[in-house]
Amino acid sequence: TDSITDYNGKEVRLATFIQENRENLVLKPGSGYGGKGVYVGRKTASDEWDEVLKLALKEERWLVQEYVELSPFLYRSGKNDTTLHDMVWGFLTCGSHYAGGFLRVMPKEGSRGVINIHQGARFSIILQVEK
Predict the structure, then answer these.
(1) Which residues contact 88 (CB under 8 A, 6 or more apart)?
(2) Verdict on whether the full-model pTM lies above 0.85
């Protein structure tokens, strides 16, 4: 169905909006894991996007979210080199206090936009330096 929803204070027909705004959206199953079934619109052909959208509307258990372009960072590559990587930053808290952090990193070249360990990303730590 093409239900009506609110997007940035404007009423839109959801299915039509998703189809017309592929470049700025991500579609993914609501109960998936490991980056499986995640479709980044700008990295998905329009005909494949249309097929996934049909499936999502039929199953009604999918999520749509805005795509956020990541700023790439230099990260180690091999023993003595660095290349541009996409990173997902994760911060941990205990109550209202900072308790550490981690990174998921994936080389930007050849990425399909999903930064997930099951898709080839690696974990790294964040070091906190006290002054």
Answers:
(1) 103, 104, 115, 121
(2) no
